[in-house]
């Protein structure tokens, strides 16, 4: 009788992402077949709830089709296999010869047209995006844009701070579109890469090829981190022409940014207007309930069996962003595995200490004093409106270090400089990006960071 369920599994395997199938569908166990229903076992309560909310209708439809009975029902129960490891052993489920968790999937366009831009991350799909009050509208609007061709809008502007899921949502749109039409020419690229590619095209006299690539050989443009177009006037002009061509041809465009269009400094009015004409959605810091959902899913992915009180404890303290949660869970797993200890509240508290600033952490005044002494600038000039490099650069370093080493919020850092929230985010992300390419800045940051740590120890 379990052959019915095996046949259904084979049918849905190609309908959902491989990762989602492995995580949610494959663990389901055939229990029994009644005259009017098929009963499947879920490994735990959370899995049962997720399957019911997201896959029940799809699975039931396939069961009815297989049995040729439109009234046949599908039921779920919690079922723990008898071979499950005893609770006294480490709660970490070891998986020898485990395959790497993160892979990338090349953009699926026809061979004649070739893959374009960066690859889409295979894990960034709608099925794996955790929806809560903090992102419900952005999720719904994105999914509608990906699946519905009769919407009154063709472009979207996704606003979010770093680590809150804007890249996940942007690439989920790309995956959904490719699932619907594998021949779509999707260009997924960052604003910085767009600029570098344009500069190279100018240098080697290939501008016509560049223009054709983004204006005529593009069906969907996924453009990440548009705030870094600030001050890049030639790139802004070329991008404006490109957007006009795509909009006129009713092509779909998705922008992501950590700043609203009106808050991006040194950007042309025309380009800001094009951004603003999109449907603007935002992702905010997850609320407690959403953080619980995220932690539950991330824990399952890492094969962690966490008690509810530990999940809630982590959700209460890990309120910065999703990357912070992933990092804490990785640390929790590593400690439990390497030290061969049970995951309990004491271990969770130990891990939290490494991820949440302590009450006696470094204050912003200490950072300001160090910056002023190191760069030899007057503290009043950090608060000034001057954009001269001798003041703006130390100001940006001060902002970056405050965000890294103090518990101060973005608003508090902004008040200390008489600056807006958006300006603080922009300055911090600018330094983060320059750190990747500029050794001089890396050395400065390392030196100043060590000074702060030494000061804190005294």
List the SSEs and their pairings.
Elements: H1 2-12, H2 18-25, E1 29-33, E2 37-42, H3 45-54, H4 56-67, E3 73-78, E4 104-105, E5 120-121, H5 136-147, E6 155-160, H6 166-180, E7 186-190, H7 191-203, H8 207-215, E8 220-224, H9 233-248, E9 252-257, H10 269-276, E10 279-283, H11 288-301, H12 308-317, H13 322-339, H14 345-355, H15 364-375, H16 379-382, H17 389-405, H18 410-417, H19 421-435, H20 439-457
Parallel strand pairs: 2-3, 6-9, 6-10, 7-8, 8-9
Antiparallel strand pairs: 1-2, 4-5
Which geometry do the CA atoms define?
A: flat
Strand content: 5-15%
Indicate the low-confidence ranges by residue numbers.
83-115
Give the helix/strand class: alpha/beta
Main beta-sheet strand count, sense and barrel state: 5 strands, parallel
Order of helices and strands: HHEEHHEEEHEHEHHEHEHEHHHHHHHHHH
Work out the helicity level: 40-55%
Label the CATH architecture of the largest domain.
3-Layer(aba) Sandwich
Q: Helix count, per DSSP?
A: 20
CATH classification class of the largest domain: Alpha Beta
Mean pLDDT: 84
Corresponding CATH superfamily of the largest domain: P-loop containing nucleotide triphosphate hydrolases
Over all CA atoms, what is the radius of gyration?
25 Å
- Please report the total strand number as a whole number: 10
How far apart lie the N and C ends?
A: 71 Å
